Amino acid sequence: MSRLSDLLSVSRGVYRGYFAGEDLGGLAAPPVIKADYDVPSLLVKGESRPSERLEGCRELQAKITLKLKNVNLAWRLLENIRSEADKLELVNSGNRSNTRLTFPESWLLPVWEFEPSFTGDHLITLHFFSRNDGDGKLFYFTGT
After folding, report:
1. pLDDT, tens digit only, all 144 positions of the chain
2. Concatenated DSSP letters for the chain?
3. Do residues 128 and 63 lie in contact, with contact meaning Cβ atoms separated by under 8 Å?
4. Which residues are CB-neighbours of 107 under 8 A, at least 6 positions away?
5. CA 129/CA 103 separation, integer angstroms
């Protein structure tokens, strides 16, 4: 957890997003990441024995919300949503550190909010879903 606390206390600055090889640009607000886990279970009944609950492997998951300035790119991504997972990266190169959070199994969700502006940049909020990869990791953290 010390690396995560380093991320929260030392690595302040503007994040930049990358999804499926596309540069999403600098984010208009810090990313919001809400992680959770699930353990699937199944109730098995037999004629000669009492019911038994079987549990599967723990599944990690996260919902990641990004507020973007590049509205045209967001429209293009939303228009061509794919069913395959791809890599989502959040890079922070501010304040003496170059930190990177990589979510290897991520999907763009068809949920979004558009905020038009009369005086400034239009903004769009995209939502992503991530789950653990084959190695059981939800994300990879690199940086100082």
Report:
1. 556 665 555 546 688 999 999 999 999 999 999 999 887 777 777 777 777 777 777 789 999 999 999 999 999 999 999 899 999 999 987 666 678 999 999 999 999 999 998 988 899 999 999 999 989 899 999 876
2. -HHHHHHHHT--S-EEEEETTEEEEEBSS--EEEEEEE--EEEE--SSS--EEEE---EEEEEEEEEES-HHHHHHHHHT--SS-EEEEEEE--TT--EEEEEEEEEEEEEEEEE--SSS--EEEEEEEEE--TTS-S-EEE--
3. yes
4. 83, 85, 86, 128, 129, 130
5. 9
Q: Are 17 and 24 in contact (CB under 8 A)?
A: yes
Q: How many CB atoms lie within 10 A of CB 107?
A: 18
Single pTM value for the model:
0.80
Distance (Å, whole) CA 135 – CA 23: 26
Taking alpha carbons only, the member of 3, 7, 5 closest to residue 90 is: 7
Q: Nearest CA to 136 among 32, 43, 56, 17?
A: 56
What distance in Å separates the CA atoms of residue 142 and residue 130, rounded to the nearest whole number?
A: 18
